[in-house]
Amino acid sequence: MRGIKYLLVITVLLLALAFVLTTFVFKKDGGSEETVSETVSSAESETTAEPEKKEDENIDNAWAMFLVNKKNPLPLDYDSRIETKVIFESWREYYLDVRAAEYFEKMLDAAKEDGIDLLVVSAYRTIEYQQQNFDRSVQDRVDKGMSYDDAYADTLAEVALPGESEHNAGLALDIMSQDYTSMEDDGFENTEAFAWLDKHAAEYGFILRYPKGKQEITGIIYEPWHYRFVGVYYANEIKESGLCLEEYYEKNGWLDSDDKATDMLGPVKEEKPAETAVPENTEPKETMPTTPYSEQKATIIV
Ligand SMILES: [Zn+2]
């Protein structure tokens, strides 16, 4: 009996010892596994943090790619956000956003070398001017006996509201040639200047903004003279696609169901300090020229 008791006690002790040893070894293993997995996970996080998302280096002047139309007006303080410079002088001076100006100047020189004398007939217009122009058109109609409501509606069909014209963005030009300056028809498309622009404008970042057959979409008649700066990359893309700007936006999924632009580009969304802004453009507002518009042809509306 005594022998059995001792045997039981020894067995219990051995079992207890075995338990303690097993637990100890298990914990040790577990610990080393944890260490390994920690090393792995920290290595993983280092690898995932390393490659930063880079912008497409092929895209130049992405800042210039934004939509301006009835559905996508510029903010009314847009004039204070840009710096413009003289890009053409005839009987008056014409201005463009400085960032687009150098592209236009190169295009002008290249055309000249090919024997084409381009003539700028409209460029940057202040939002204030656009308002005056609009108000004057309403008043003219009222003076002719229309009710104010009718005059307003009638004007709306012909004159862009302030902020709704690309000319207000300093990125649009109406370009014609010395030998053809009529905007009463689309005869400009038969000139050598038009043919030259049609072939080369995209190389300098400009697109024909209101192409033939797109009036339903752009809301603007065919204007063989109206060019818009969007940067060289997008100008070539759009030219090759045969789409107008609104269609190009739609194709890329940059329009919501109300035809409002949803992409991140453009002045409206750029209220935070822009990292990609060209330094010269952040100069004080005093450098803004005051453009005399009083002599502007009334027919130039968009
Ligand atoms: Zn125009």
Principal-axes geometry comes out as globular
Biggest pleated sheet = 4 strands, antiparallel
The helix/strand series, from N terminus to C terminus, equals: HEEHEHHEHEHEHH
Rg estimate, integer Å: 33 Å
Low-confidence stretches: 20-54, 268-300
CATH architecture of the largest domain: 2-Layer Sandwich
CATH uppermost class of the largest domain: Alpha Beta
Ligand inventory reads: zinc ion
Strand elements, count: 6
Spatial ordering of strands, largest sheet: 3-4-6-5
- Taken as a percent bin, the fraction of beta residues is 5-15%
The portion of residues assigned to helices is: 25-40%
The number of helical elements comes to 8
The domain tally reads 2
CATH T-level topology of the largest domain: Muramoyl-pentapeptide Carboxypeptidase, domain 2
SS-based class: alpha+beta
Determine the N-to-C terminus distance. 114 Å
Mean pLDDT: 78
Describe this structure in words.
The chain has 302 residues and is of the alpha+beta class. It has two domains: 1-48; 62-287, Muramoyl-pentapeptide Carboxypeptidase, domain 2 (2-Layer Sandwich), CATH 3.30.1380.10. The chain is 40% helix and 10% strand. The protein is built from eight helices and six strands. The strands form two sheets. Strands 3-4-6-5 form a four-stranded antiparallel beta sheet. It has a two-stranded antiparallel sheet with strand order 1-2. Strand 1 and strand 2 form a beta hairpin. Helix 3 crosses helix 4. The longest helix is centred in the N-terminal third of the chain and has 48 residues, at 2-49. The chain is globular, with a radius of gyration of 33 Å. The model is unreliable at 20-54 and 268-300 (pLDDT under 50). Bound molecules: zinc ion.
